[in-house]
Design goal:
- The chain has helices at about 10-130, 135-145, and strands at about 1-5, 5.
- Strands 1-2 form a two-stranded antiparallel sheet.
- It is built from 2 helices and 2 strands, in the order ββαα.
- It starts with a strand and ends in a 26-residue tail after the last helix.
- By secondary structure, the chain is an all-alpha fold.
- The chain is rod-shaped and about 180 Å long.
């Protein structure tokens, strides 16, 4: 109802509304302890989950520290390996240079050997020609030693590896 444009409620409506509000408050008061208990349970569950998360983060932190330490060791080893690789590279270059020198010297040895092989027949012929003269050279040396002012010397020994052809001349 309205009086002078203002809404005015009847006492019965006000009482009904008050009873309805009191009933709602009573229902709320009856369910509030259960809701508080549920909120406490949820709070405790959230706290235990938080503790579990905290423990996991601490374990992850320890593992991260271990991974960082391992990374530092790997980095140090990698640096050592790089330095070792550089040394191996330098040694390889030196070996390569030495190999080139060895190849050059081996080529010279082959050339010298080929020259010696070509000279061998001439050398053998010269030896064949000089062998009969060995006795004559010894005799000439002894003759020079007997001359006045000549130094006395022991007779020269002949090498035992080559046989000397028999002398037809006799020693003086």
């Amino acid at each position: 109802m309205r009086i002078l444009g203002l809404p005015i409620e009847t006492p019965q409506t006000v009482v009904n509304r008050a009873i309805s509000d009191l009933a709602a408050i009573a229902r709320l008061a009856r369910s509030a302890p259960a809701q508080f208990d549920r909120m406490l349970e949820l709070g405790e569950e959230i706290a235990s989950i938080g503790r579990g998360v905290l423990e996991m983060t601490e374990r992850l932190d320890r593992r991260a520290d271990a991974v960082l330490a391992l990374g530092e060791r790997i980095d140090a080893r990698a640096s050592e390996l790089l330095a070792l690789g550089e040394q191996i590279n330098m040694l390889g270059e030196r070996i390569d240079e030495r190999g080139a020198e060895i190849v050059d010297r081996a080529a010279k040895v082959v050339e010298t050997g080929a020259d010696l092989i070509t000279m061998m027949p001439a050398f053998e012929r010269a030896l064949e020609m000089a062998t009969p003269l060995e006795g004559a050279i010894d005799r000439f040396g002894r003759l020079v030693d007997r001359l006045p002012g000549g130094a006395g010397r022991a007779p020269a020994r002949r090498p035992a590896t080559r046989e000397r052809p028999p002398d037809t001349e006799t020693d003086p």
